[in-house]
Amino acid sequence: xSLKKAGFIVFLILxxxxxxxxxxxxHFYLRESIQVFGLDWFQIYFVExxxxxWGTELPGEYGKIALSIFRLVIAPIIGYWLYKSVKENAPKLxxxxxxxxxxxxxxxxxDSLVYGVIFDASTTTQIATFFPEAGGYAKPLYGKVVDMxxxxxxxxxxxxxxxxxxxxxxxxxxxxxxxADMAISTxxxxxxxxxxxxxxxxx
Length: 203
Description:
Elements (H helix, E strand, L loop, with lengths): L2 H25 L5 E3 L7 E7 L10 H28 L4 H27 L26 E6 L3 E4 L11 E4 L3 E2 L1 H15 L1 H4 L5
Helix pairs in contact: 1-3, 2-3, 3-4
């Protein structure tokens, strides 16, 4: 696969990811949700998190800055891996996977790097504005990641005979995520499932 095609994959993922995030940020109250096509199990649910993919978080202010710096360090490494893979005519599936991972990493870096500067805070009573006169809600690298895709496939009370969780409310797949998270997970999934194809012996 050519570098141009790999770059197009990266650009497309970033464009979709950031377009959706910018729309959600400027049109939704925090924790506002809507059903997509009237489906209970497919919702746009606006939340923000301080941390890594799929809404996971590192505790404290130092956890946030450590994660942001880690992202800034790892993204160029992934970018170089992508460039090197293209130049060495690596398997097409490998290039696609690394392109997805790189795009996802950059997509979430943008949130952390600039969203705190270019937006004021989203709350349950206030929709964020773009470049507010009073300034943003956080310093560079302290911005929150915007998540919105929610697929609660099943919600209910688990049978009492189930150890530990029996009798408790449970939601199957309660993670809230974004397009960047999906890209990273898809890329990693390709590397794991098609390991023999993307890393052929003797290559």
